């Protein structure tokens, strides 16, 4: 993403957005981690902390905002609506605070639930 100011140009890579998003999401109660669906076997896999950005997709919008899509794995027994709302608020706040870019929407996909 390219931001223009009176002093010059700022470029923020998509990795910055995905890392901020992944870190904000996994710090929420009930989130076990980020998820990715394997192309070979179609199963959902829990990502390690160092590769959690793979469970995040960032889309740059025409109006200089971003849209974020997250795929997560949650603990068994948590309220999915409460966890999803918490993630949406946390991601929106952290991305806006750190980058200065407005977040248009945050879509949370619960791909799996871990029992035990």
Descriptive overview:
With 116 residues, the protein is of the alpha+beta class. It is 28% helix and 39% strand. It has one domain (2-114): Cation efflux protein, cytoplasmic domain (Alpha-Beta Plaits, 2-Layer Sandwich), CATH 3.30.70.1350. It has 2 helices and 7 strands; from the N terminus they run ββαββββαβ. The strands form 2 sheets. Strands 3, 4, 5, 6 and 7 form a 5-stranded mixed beta sheet that branches. A two-stranded antiparallel sheet has the order 1-2.
Stretches with pLDDT under 50, minimum 5 residues: none
Instruction: Please state the structural category.
Output: alpha+beta
Count helical runs. Answer: 2
If classified by CATH, what would the architecture be? 2-Layer Sandwich
This entry's quaternary arrangement is single chain
SSE layout and pairing:
Blueprint: E1 2-5, E2 8-11, H1 14-26, E3 31-37, E4 44-46, E5 56-60, E6 66-75, H2 80-99, E7 103-114
Parallel strand pairs: 6-7
Antiparallel strand pairs: 1-2, 3-4, 3-6, 5-6
Helix pairs in contact: 1-2
Keywords:
single chain, 116 residues, alpha+beta, Alpha-Beta Plaits, 5-stranded mixed beta sheet, two-stranded antiparallel ribbon, 7 strands, 28% helix, elongated
């Amino acid at each position: 993403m390219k931001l223009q100011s009176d002093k010059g140009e700022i470029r923020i890579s998509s990795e910055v957005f995905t890392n901020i998003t992944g870190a904000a999401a996994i710090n929420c109660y009930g989130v076990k981690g980020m998820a990715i669906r394997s192309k070979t076997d179609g199963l959902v896999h829990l990502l390690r902390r160092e590769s959690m950005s793979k469970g995040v997709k960032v889309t740059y919008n025409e109006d200089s905002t971003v849209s974020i899509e997250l795929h997560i794995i949650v603990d068994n027994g948590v309220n999915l609506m409460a966890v999803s709302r918490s993630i949406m608020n946390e991601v929106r706040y952290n991305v806006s605070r750190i980058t200065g870019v407005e977040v248009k929407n945050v879509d949370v996909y619960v791909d799996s639930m871990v029992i035990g």
